[in-house]
């Protein structure tokens, strides 16, 4: 079966390439800003534990790819949405696919990447979802090309399995479903295997989560960050202050009574 092959779809990276090997300067600058300026840098453990909706950047190694859910899907060439096979054929006995968005049947459909990659770093692991544009940048091939070459749909094409063990920089979204536990994967907004960017990112100092230190922590020279969150420590400090105030009042009343005697 031959498929209509189109250019990089709208959900692709912000990166644009003037040819197969040279990235545009403006786009490269934009990508650098997203990894080093615009977004907060987190470890994978921090991302999994995050209670904030937002976009974050991290560095991790692809350990595996979910093959049970497949590595690609057939899409409508007009909407990039998934199409469903039907039992109908056209006049030339070619299979027709139904697009719910178009509410029509089509002959020409486009295979697109949808990779759920298992990513790991020194702190933890998570599943990241790569859609077509980002996956193409990493694989360096289109899903349509690999689909036509791949004889067994249950097996990963070699160009995809070559991602195993590679360190990748990811910009990922944490949404409400991730926080509530309704979604087990994080959508990748941008990904790059650029060696210079990865080495520069990996060389950054380890970022520590900001916690409040009490005056005791500082004066005692413990040096470590308190393991108690700011709000909780504030509540504890208020309670301690209240007890100290009450003790002071009681002491004054006791001294006044003694003098009166």
UniProtKB/TrEMBL annotation:
Source domain of life is Eukaryota
Q: Which Pfam families match?
A: Rep_fac-A_C
**What SUPFAM superfamilies does its record include?**
Nucleic acid-binding proteins
Question: InterPro entries annotated for this entry?
Answer: Euk_RPA1_DBD_C (IPR047192), NA-bd_OB-fold (IPR012340), Rep_factor-A_C (IPR013955)
Q: Residue ranges of region Disordered?
A: 220-249
Is this entry keyworded Zinc?
yes
Q: Name one GO molecular function term.
A: zinc ion binding
Q: Which keywords annotate this record?
A: DNA-binding, Metal-binding, Zinc, Zinc-finger
Indicate the segments forming the Replication factor A C-terminal domain, all copies.
58-183
Q: Does the keyword Cytoplasm apply?
A: no
Query: What PANTHER family would the database entry show?
Result: OS03G0429900 PROTEIN
User: What family does this chain come from, according to its entry?
Assistant: Belongs to the replication factor A protein 1 family.
Q: What is this protein called?
A: Uncharacterized protein LOC108820099
> Which species is this record about?
Raphanus sativus
């Amino acid at each position: 079966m031959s498929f209509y092959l189109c250019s990089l779809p709208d959900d692709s990276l912000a990166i644009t390439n003037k040819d197969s090997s040279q990235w545009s300067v403006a786009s490269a600058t934009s990508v650098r800003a997203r990894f080093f300026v615009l977004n907060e840098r987190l470890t994978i453990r921090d991302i999994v534990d995050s209670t904030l909706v937002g976009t974050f950047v991290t560095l991790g190694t692809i350990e595996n790819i979910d093959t049970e859910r497949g590595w690609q899907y057939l899409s409508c060439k007009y909407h990039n949405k998934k199409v469903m096979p039907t039992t109908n054929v056209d006049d030339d006995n070619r299979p027709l696919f139904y697009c719910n968005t178009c509410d029509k049947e089509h002959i020409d459909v486009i295979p697109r990447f949808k990779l759920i990659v298992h990513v790991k770093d020194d702190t933890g692991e998570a599943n990241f979802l790569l859609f077509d544009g980002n996956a193409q940048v990493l694989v360096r091939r289109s899903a349509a090309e690999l689909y036509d070459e791949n004889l067994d749909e249950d097996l990963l094409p070699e160009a995809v399995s070559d991602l195993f063990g590679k360190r990748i920089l990811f910009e990922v979204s944490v949404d409400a479903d991730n926080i509530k536990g309704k979604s087990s994967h994080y959508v990748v907004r941008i990904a790059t295997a650029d060696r210079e960017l990865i080495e520069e990112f990996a060389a950054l100092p380890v970022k520590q989560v900001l916690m409040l230190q009490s005056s005791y922590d500082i004066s005692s020279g413990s040096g470590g960050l308190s393991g108690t969150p700011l709000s909780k420590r504030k509540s504890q400090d208020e309670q301690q202050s209240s007890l100290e105030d009450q003790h002071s009042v009681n002491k004054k009343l006791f001294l006044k009574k003694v003098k009166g005697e």
